[in-house]
Amino acid sequence: MPVDENDGVQNIWEQPAQPPPPLFLGEKERDLVKQVNDELIERIIGQQVLYYPISEKHTDFHPIYGEAVEKNFLAPIRVYALVMWEGSNTTTSNFGIDRLSSIEIHFHKRRLTEDQDLFVREGDFVLYGDVYYEIVTLGQPRELFGQPDFKVEIVAKCIRAREGLFKQDSDRVQDPRKKLASPPAFTKLVPADPLPSDPTLCIPKLSAAVSGSADFNDVVTLANNAANYHGCMFYLSATGSTIITPFFQAQKWYFNENGVWFPSPFAGE
Fold first, then answer.
1. DSSP letter at 36?
2. Which of 125, 160, 195 is the last residue of a domain?
3. Is residue 79 within 8 Å of residue 109, measured between CB atoms?
4. Is residue 202 part of a domain?
5. What is the pLDDT of residues 201-237, one digit of tens each?
6. Range of 149's domain?
């Protein structure tokens, strides 16, 4: 029988320094929540946006103020999320009438960071419907099971981008609901290496290292006419001093889905 410390015997029923881990709210339960949310958001609700992350590598920021006159963006990424339309507000000033609309996007955090390697930041742009919006504020208001190390969502407050603030060639981004024409043939159908006697698959291999070369012109054609190459893919072996948007990375596979070029997600190839 335990004896009180006042009697000179150590109490064996001391409270532990930290509480035990939860029995029913562990990693398996968190994975189940992620799986259910993924299916609900993508297969049932189905709202989606095109996300344009700023390229810090290819944007010329001011060395002191950290600002840039023109921003360069990476290839857009399709993201499924919950989008809430907040309406539009009209204000009148000395310069006339100004109408500004806004949306609130609820991103599934684990889906973005773990599966798509995407991190939401202020200053990035999204395309919702036919309108571009700029992300102005971010928040993570909900914890998962009350655990401070695990957040459920990222909430982004977005306002409509003014005309001219975000420049994007309309030919490169197409509404996925529109039917695209059959893609024309590549000007270079085979890679430079000799083909096997019985090839079963032949994917173009292009190099943009030399400006003005045949390969360089082919890459420019693919970039400027992305809407015509739905379902196509090629391998970019090298880049040069002239960067062709959105083909920033060399030694990379690129594929076209709904008129938008995407780099392969592999870190090393």
1. H
2. 160
3. no
4. yes
5. 567 888 888 888 888 888 888 888 888 888 888 888 8
6. 27-160
Is the pTM higher than 0.85? The answer reads no
Element of type H or E holding 38: helix 27-39
Are the beta carbons of 207 and 236 closer than 8 angstroms? yes
Q: How far is CA 141 from CA 34, 160, 189, 230, 250, in A?
A: 17, 23, 51, 39, 39
Longest dimension (CA), the chain: 93
Instruction: Classify residue 42 by burial, with Cβ atoms within 10 Å: 0-12, 13-18, 19+.
Output: middle
Element containing residue 90 per DSSP (H, E)? strand 82-93
Measuring CA to CA, how many Å separate 219 from each of 32, 51, 87, 108, 225? 43, 23, 41, 35, 10
pLDDT digits over 89-135, tens only?
A: 887 877 777 788 899 999 999 998 888 888 999 888 999 988 899 99
Structure tokens at 7: 């009697």
